[in-house]
Each structure stands twice: as C-alpha cells, then as structure tokens.
C-alpha cells in the first residue's frame, strides 16, 4: 500500500522463487545513448533501462540536436556526430545521476558547444573535481562554484590535449570522462587506475569502431577517431539483480534463476561475495564474450557466514554494498567491509545511511570511516525506514521487509524508479508463501 510517499510492506514468512529478467544495465544504457550521440549515423539500442537516470541522459542529447526515438526499451538514435551538435537552449539537467553528469563533463569539454550542466539537490552536493581537475589539465574550460567541484557547471567546448593520468580514486566515471574527452584531444590519452573499475566504456568504444588499448590497469586512446553508429544490446543489470540475489541467498527455501543478467567480470564482485559467504550460485549459461558478457545464473539459499570484503574487489561491487550489509546481518559471524570510503559520496552517505537504517531493525552494525562491521545472524524487527531519496537504500529497505518480524514502512520509495522502475512488480511476482516452522 502506498500512502503519499510512504509504503508499508509486510509478508508472512515468505520465500522468493522463480525466474527473473531484471531491466537493462544502467551504466551500459547511459553509454549506449552517449556513444550513439557522439557517433555519426544510426544506432539502435535494445534492452535500454527506462530508469529516470537514463531518461535524463536521453533528454540531454535531444537538447544537443540528436534525434532519439524511444519505444519502451528499444531506442533509435540518429546523430550528425559530435562536431555538428547545436548549442542547447537552456540548461542541461542531469537530475540525480552522477554517471550522466560526470561522463557529460568529459564529452562536452571536447565538443564544440557551450552549455550549463545542473542536477538535483543530491547531485549538486557530489564532488565533481575528480573529473574537472584532469579535464582542466587537458585544457577544458569548466567553471562553477568551489573551483568547479559542484554543479551547476559551465562548460565551453574546445580544443583539448591528451593526458597521461593516474587516477587517485578507482572510479569508472572519472576514467570514462577522461576517455570521452580523449576522443577529441590532440595526441594520446592514457588513464591509469589503482584497481580496475567497470570497463563498459572501453568495450563500447570498440563496438563503435574506436581503437582503444587496455594493458593491465592502463587504458589508452589515440584522438581523432570517427565513431560510427552501431547496434547495442543491453544485458540485465547485475546491480539490480543483486537485491534479489541477496533475498534468495538469505531466505530459507528460496531460489531464483536470473535470465540474461550481465556478467562482465568488472561487475561480478557480488557473485564472489555470495559464494564466499556460502550461498549456492550456479552459472547455467554464459554468452557474449567480446562485447558485454551475460548469462543465466541461479542463486539459492544456504547457511551463510561472515567474511571480509576489501581491496580490489570493492569497485566491482560498489553499488551492491548496501544490500550486502543487509545480507551480512543474516550470516553467522562478523562481516567487515573496508576500503569503501567512496560510499560516502554517492546519492547519500551510504555508510551512515545503511548503518542508521539497519540499526532501527535491530541489526548489530557499526560504521567505520571506510566501511561497516556487521555481526550476525540477528533476527530483525519491522520499523520505519528512510530511503534518503537514494534508490539503493529504498530497495534495501524493501528486501529487509522480507525477513523482518512486523511491517517495514519505507519513506519516499518512488526514488527506486531511478534505476529499477518495475522493482515492486517483480518483487510481488517472486513472493511465494513459505512453510510454517
Ligand atoms: O560508471 C558508471 O556507470 C558508474 C560507476 C560507479 O561510480 P564511480 O565511478 O563514482 O565509482 C557506480 O557507483 C555508478 O553507479 C555507475
Ligand atoms: C551511485 C550510483 O549512480 P550514479 O553515480 O550514476 O548517481 C548508483 O546507481 O548506485
């Protein structure tokens, strides 16, 4: 039941079971629109995510003069190419989407248009210097409050030069922004990362005909390459599937088969974590090796134990950490999450938010500077939970309701549409009545 912006969820000892095809991957959907707009000619996208963040990306490229027609999850892009874009009328609004804003800063810097990029309250508090610093070193003209750290930012597109840049944070958004700028920067652009972050940009550059080299943790690109429109198929988003993987892993008698879910190795940290905690994970089929790997996997309940999650695996499961924290409350022993300070600069401070909300349910969880320490297993009780306008927090609260004694009330659940518009429908489809003890 939804009352204004409050949704109450209560189940009577449910199990989750069945087959699930989650919506398209958010990161890949953004990039398909971006590259289809930079390239010359026609691009088709199948399996596009109709989430609010990706719809913002479409609106922005329409303002730049690109023709984008959408019929549900099918998109047709016809672009004159980045050099023929028109100066937009009005501001470019990225809404809540960090990916839209940061990648666009790189793209717009190397274009020939002038623009102003804005976002909602949450996005306007998220750091942009990580992107504007290297872009300014490439010669980009970007100005705004706090030396370009926060939106709104004005970008004057123009001549750039290549850079050899060692990233201080492992971030696919920073890496991608620099690579996009590198497409139109004189000479070679090299980006070096401390731990490998999602590589969707690199894979999709190749699909659009660009020559891009990956050598260990370094990615390099020669400028002046003309991209040509192509056909992109977007697999299911493993970050969305993760909520139901966690539910299947922690609820007795549960098992879910995930159809056509993305299995790019830079995103599958959640699978490694589930296996290490003792859940049953079976990879039933795998396809699409050279573009974006995807496949069919089954996750089933089993006895779970606490583990340590740290180091290079963190960028491969960064958006899954809220749901992993909930999962850890049901595992025997202690789970320690470290090296995840990036969580503090997401849609909300996810370390503080997850800890506050899970404590309300009775969890034994403690926030640290760069992560969380969770002791389990703990029976959870219902409570009123805030989403903080953060889709991942909203979905964590809804999945928690599957295991609480008593109802969970979620404040502002509509933010879930940012990445998973049909989340509640798919949740109801998976709920089955469990056996009484
Ligand atoms: O490049 C991307 O599509 C994303 C990268 C990650 O952010 P960072 O690059 O800030 O780690 C992730 O949290 C975000 O949801 C999507
Ligand atoms: C952090 C996220 O997205 P973005 O940075 O694009 O807002 C997310 O989807 O969890």
TrEMBL record:
Molecular functions (GO terms): 3-phosphoshikimate 1-carboxyvinyltransferase activity
Q: What pathway, per the record? A: Metabolic intermediate biosynthesis; chorismate biosynthesis; chorismate from D-erythrose 4-phosphate and phosphoenolpyruvate: step 6/7
Q: What is its main location?
A: cytoplasm
What the entry lists under InterPro entries is as follows:
Enolpyruvate_Tfrase_dom (IPR001986), Enolpyruvate_Tfrase_sf (IPR036968), EPSP_synthase (IPR006264), EPSP_synthase_CS (IPR023193), RNA3'P_cycl/enolpyr_Trfase_a/b (IPR013792)
Gene3D superfamilies named among the record's database cross-references: Enolpyruvate transferase domain
GO terms, biological process = amino acid biosynthetic process; aromatic amino acid family biosynthetic process; chorismate biosynthetic process
**Similarity comment:** Belongs to the EPSP synthase family.
Q: Catalyzes what?
A: 3-phosphoshikimate + phosphoenolpyruvate = 5-O-(1-carboxyvinyl)-3-phosphoshikimate + phosphate
Task: List keywords of the entry alphabetically.
Answer: Amino-acid biosynthesis, Aromatic amino acid biosynthesis, Cytoplasm, Transferase
Q: What Enzyme Commission number does this protein have?
A: 2.5.1.19
Q: Which organism is it from?
A: Sporosarcina thermotolerans
- Family matches, as PANTHER family: AROM/DEHYDROQUINATE SYNTHASE, PENTAFUNCTIONAL AROM POLYPEPTIDE
Query: What is the protein name for this chain?
Result: 3-phosphoshikimate 1-carboxyvinyltransferase
Relate the protein's function as given in its record: Catalyzes the transfer of the enolpyruvyl moiety of phosphoenolpyruvate (PEP) to the 5-hydroxyl of shikimate-3-phosphate (S3P) to produce enolpyruvyl shikimate-3-phosphate and inorganic phosphate.
Q: Which residues does the UniProt record annotate as the domain Enolpyruvate transferase?
A: 16-427
Q: Where does 3-phosphoshikimate bind?
A: 26-27, 31, 171, 173, 319, 346
Q: Which residues bind phosphoenolpyruvate?
A: 26, 98, 126, 173, 350, 392
Residues annotated as the enzyme's active site: 319 (proton acceptor)
User: Which top-rank group of organisms is this from?
Assistant: Bacteria
Keyword check for Amino-acid biosynthesis, yes or no.
Answer: yes
- Where found? Cytoplasm
């Amino acid at each position: 039941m939804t009352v204004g912006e409050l949704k109450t969820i209560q189940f009577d000892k449910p199990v989750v079971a069945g087959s699930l095809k989650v919506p398209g991957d958010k990161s890949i959907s953004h990039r398909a629109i971006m590259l289809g707009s930079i390239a010359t000619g026609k691009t088709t996208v199948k399996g596009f995510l109709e989430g609010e963040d990706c719809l913002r990306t479409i609106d922005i490229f329409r303002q730049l003069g690109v023709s984008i027609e959408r019929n549900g999850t099918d998109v047709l892009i016809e672009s004159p190419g980045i050099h023929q874009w028109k100066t937009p009328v009005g501001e470019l609004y990225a809404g809540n989407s960090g990916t839209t804003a940061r990648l666009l800063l790189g793209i717009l810097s190397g274009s020939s248009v002038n623009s102003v990029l804005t976002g909602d309250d949450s996005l306007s508090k998220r750091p942009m210097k990580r992107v504007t610093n290297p872009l300014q070193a490439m010669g980009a003209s970007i100005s705004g409050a706090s030396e370009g750290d926060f939106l709104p930012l004005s970008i004057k597109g123009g001549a750039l030069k290549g850079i050899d840049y060692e990233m201080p944070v492992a971030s696919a958004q920073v890496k991608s922004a620099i690579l996009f700028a590198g497409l139109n920067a004189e000479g070679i652009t090299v980006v070096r990362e401390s731990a490998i972050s999602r590589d969707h940009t690199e894979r999709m550059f190749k699909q659009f005909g660009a020559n891009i080299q990956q050598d260990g943790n370094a990615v390099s690109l020669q400028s002046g390459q003309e991209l040509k429109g192509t056909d992109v198929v977007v697999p299911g988003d493993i970050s969305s599937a993760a909520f139901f993987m966690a539910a299947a892993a922690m609820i007795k008698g549960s098992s879910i088969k995930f159809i056509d879910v993305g299995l790019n190795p830079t995103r599958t940290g959640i699978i490694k974590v589930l296996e290490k905690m003792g859940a049953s994970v079976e990879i039933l089929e795998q396809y699409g090796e050279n573009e974006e790997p995807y496949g069919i996997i089954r996750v089933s309940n089993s006895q779970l134990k606490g583990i340590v999650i740290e180091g290079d695996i963190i960028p491969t499961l960064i958006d899954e950490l809220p749901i992993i924290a909930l999962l850890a409350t049901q595992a025997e022993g202690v789970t320690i999450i470290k090296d995840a300070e990036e969580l503090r600069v997401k849609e909300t401070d996810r370390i503080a938010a997850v800890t506050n909300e899970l404590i309300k349910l009775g969890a034994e969880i403690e926030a640290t500077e760069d992560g969380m320490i969770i002791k389990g297993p703990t029976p959870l009780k219902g409570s009123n939970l805030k989403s903080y306008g953060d889709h991942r927090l909203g979905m964590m609260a809804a999945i928690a309701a599957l295991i609480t004694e008593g109802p969970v009330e979620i404040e502002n659940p509509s933010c879930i549409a940012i990445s998973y518009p049909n989340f509640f429908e798919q949740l109801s489809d998976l709920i089955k009545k469990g056996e009484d003890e």
